[in-house]
Amino acid sequence: MNHTTPLPPHPNPETAEPTVPHPQAAERHGRHALLDTEPGIPTPVLAAGAGLLKAVLVPVVTALAIGTAFVAVYLAAFHAPTAHHQPLGIAASDQQAARAELALNDTAPDAYSFHRYPSAAAARDAVAHDQVPAALVTEGNSTVLLAAGAQGPSTVAGLQAAASSAAGHPVAVQDVVPLASGDTRGLSVFYASFGVVLAGFLFSVASYQIAPRLPLAARVASTVVFAAASGTMVALIGHQALHALPAAFTTVAVIAALLAMATATAAGVLLRLFGPIGMPVASVVLLILGNATSGGILPPSFLPPWLAPLAQIMPPAAAVRALRGAGYYHSAHLTGGLVLLAVWILGCLAVQYALDLRAVRQEAVAA
Question: What is the pTM (predicted TM-score) of this model?
Answer without folding.
Answer: 0.83
